[in-house]
Every structure is written in structure tokens, then in C-alpha cells.
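name: query_chain
kind: protein
chains: 1
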Amino acid sequence: MSGAGHPAVPPVGSYALDVRTGRVGVVMGREGPYVQLRPLGGGREWDCAPEQVRAATPAERLSAATAYANARSRGEVP
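structure:
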């Protein structure tokens, strides 16, 4: 997806990095001028400006998945 004047945004369903916060999420779509990301394992979506989102690297995806698995094993997330 790319809009007028916006860099290419990773496609819906792919993993992306919010460069402002360093959080990895799944691209859920667009709402107005924003890209919507959802945390790995589900949860509340958050909005990012398209220029603040890029495709997550394999290492970033693995790190996020490991952090989620660890939190789940500690009972911190469902």
C-alpha cells in the first residue's frame, strides 16, 4: 500500500515495525491517514503515520515473538 506522498507500507497481514516505539505488529489496514498495527498475539491496535512504519526484519520478528512467548509463559498475556 502506498498513498500519495507516502512511502510504501508493508501489506496487510505482514509484520511491521513502528520506528517511533520499536514495537513490532501485524499490519491490519489503513484508517484515514494512518496504518493500523496489532500486537503479536492480539490486542488493541494502534495507529502509525505511514512514514513511521517499515517492514520488520526477520530478527525483529523473532525478538517480538520470543518476548510474547515469554510473557505468555509468565501468565502476563493470554
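note: The longest helix spans residues 58-73.
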